[in-house]
# Entry
Amino acid sequence: MAERRRIPETLFDDFGFRMTYEVERVLYEMHTEHQHLVLFEHPFFGKMLMLDGATQVTTKDEFVYHEMMSHVPIFAHGSAKDVLIVGGGDCGIAEEVLKHKTVKRLTQVEIDASVVEFAKEHFPEFTGPVFADRRFELIIDDGMNYVAKTERRFDVIIVDSTDPLGPGKVLFSDEFYAGCRRCMSKGAVMVTQNGVPILQADELTDSVSKFLRLFADGSCYVAAIPTYVGGHMAMGWATDNTKLRRASVKTIADRYRKAGRFPTKYWTPEVHIAAFALPRFIAEKVAKAKRR
Ligand code: SAM
# Structure
């Protein structure tokens, strides 16, 4: 029997290692205006989307990242009405954000229309409820342009970007973070996809030091996503409200109860609070950023 195709994750080639994923079936593959996109069926992880050789989302473990990037900032804020997602192509985060009935308007600014179009066909579990929700609006634009120009003000900004390569590079810049700060309401919070610290250490330290040049509070929280190889994933945290990440389990649990305790598979009030207790090697990367 012919050897099955294996698709490599090339993100960590410079570290001398590659994950390869056995392909049951390629569902979709193309070079979009901005990046190489491939979606395939994997025997264990289910549907897997890769952009430019980096795993973006899999059916098996998407809930970890999507829940932690949405419920942590929204429950920490406590009264978020206007939410902005930058990137977020597959709409997995949008689907989680819209579980919050207190959210009145959700705007997603995605650079690559092809990613959303293909997600409508291949990730209906995300896009179905999202595009059926009148609170949701999609804008196709570079996130850098949008935050530099918009008159809107947001209570929560979620930067669900690719890695700092290609179109995603600008989303890790001083200009972009300053643009985000400009369109944040008083006491708002921004969270960012910030890589895997054991492999992408500088990415985290760079972002946090940039946050601290703009905001009173800059740090990160963590979660482990099996297909974001390398252990803990860091999610950047930036706000002028220094109390937000010091809320108690009781406060978060009360807000969750008021939100109707919608089902989750990873996020809980306890996990929310624990995610800010950083392992020492990650805490040292944040401390290094503070010394810069
Ligand atoms: N969760 C994934 C991760 O951690 O790698 C990211 C998922 S999502 C698919 C990333 C999205 O960011 C992609 O759809 C990509 O097109 C979009 N993106 C990249 N650069 C962008 C930019 N400058 N402005 C807006 N969207 C951008």
Remarks:
- The longest helix spans residues 62-77.
- The CA atoms of residues 90 and 117 lie 9 Å apart.
- The chain has a mean pLDDT of 96.
- The longest strand covers residues 184-193.
